[in-house]
Amino acid sequence: MSTRRVIRSIDDLRAWCSYLYTLTRPLRVAAIEGEDRSLDQNALAHKWFTEVGQQMGETVDEVKARAKLDIGTIILCRDDPEFLAFCKKALGHLGRKDRLEAMRYINVTSILTIGQMREFMDTFERMHRAEGLQLTHPDDR
Which of 31, 32, 62, 91 meets the CB 3.0–4.6 Å disulfide criterion with 58? Predict the structure, then answer.
């Protein structure tokens, strides 16, 4: 069983430690600095997926899968050795088409921290603006 929590205060930390004491040992615990992506980042990402899809003749799901594979997995593999090992085992033998299909079932953007999601969004924006595509600027929403 896996449990994720964001610790924002000393009370959150105390509650987490109390929870850990209730678990059967041995157990593995990992701490990742930063918060999960924000709702604003999530909303803008989905807006951009839609805009790119409309301009490129792709579905939102196709754009999202491509972004998850080409940007998100790169970030997560760089920052998380367990995710890297998973990707090697689960995706390493697949061709691009099958990897894109697999992105429908693999969490990528939903597990990015705010900082990782910022990097994801910056890269997505840079890549698509370089192709001449128009994306809503966050201040225009």
Answer: 62
